[in-house]
Amino acid sequence: MSKSFLRRLRKKHDVIDRKIAQKQKSPGQDPEKISELKKLKLSIKDQIARIEAASNSPAVPAS
Question: Are 40 and 9 in contact (CB under 8 A)?
Answer without folding.
Answer: no
